[in-house]
Amino acid sequence: AKSVAQRVQETAPSTDQAVRFLFAGTAGVALLVLSGLTLTGTVVALAAATPLLVIFSPVLVPAAIAAFLIAAGLLSAGGFGVAALSAIAWIYNYVTGKHPPGADKVDYARSRIMDTARDVKERAREYGHYVQHKAQE
Fold it and tell me: Where do the TM regions start and end (predicted)?
């Protein structure tokens, strides 16, 4: 059986682990202090800027709305451009015979549409013959 001293020595952290723990603790405390200073600076800046924001709000609010709308428009245009390029690339790959994702669904849908069109054409032809026979009678 192991003695208590041997068990304590086996479970005790190594020097490397102790140094890592001290470094992590020091870094954590430093980051916590920086977070507190940032929060304090933000509150002080907001308190100092509030009168200016109130005075200039008739100008700032429409400017902020305009900036938001411009940014939203530019982001939308960029997104639509990327979507269009992606669609063009997919169509190019499909037409050139490569097998892009979803091509089998497009082929299946095309065959279903062709089958339905053929059925409608046949029914229209049959109905045309029926109408001609009724007109002749």
Answer: 21-47, 59-92
Round to whole Å and give the CA distance between 29 and 37: 12
Contact call for residues 5 and 13 (beta carbons, < 8 A)? no
Return the amino acid letter for 95. Answer: V
Cβ contact 123:135 at 8 Å: no
Helix (H) or strand (E) holding 100: none
**CA atoms of 88 and 53, how far apart (whole Å):** 47
Q: Are 107 and 94 in contact (CB under 8 A)?
A: no
Q: Which two three-digit tokens encode residue 125?
A: 């032809």
Q: Check if the beta carbon of residue 53 is closer than 8 Å to that of residue 60.
A: yes
pLDDT tens-digit series, residues 5-63: 777 777 777 888 888 889 999 999 999 999 999 999 999 999 999 998 889 889 888 99
Give the dihedral of Cα atoms 40, 43, 44, 49; nearest 10 deg: 160
The residue extents of the domains of the chain are: 1-54, 57-100, 102-136
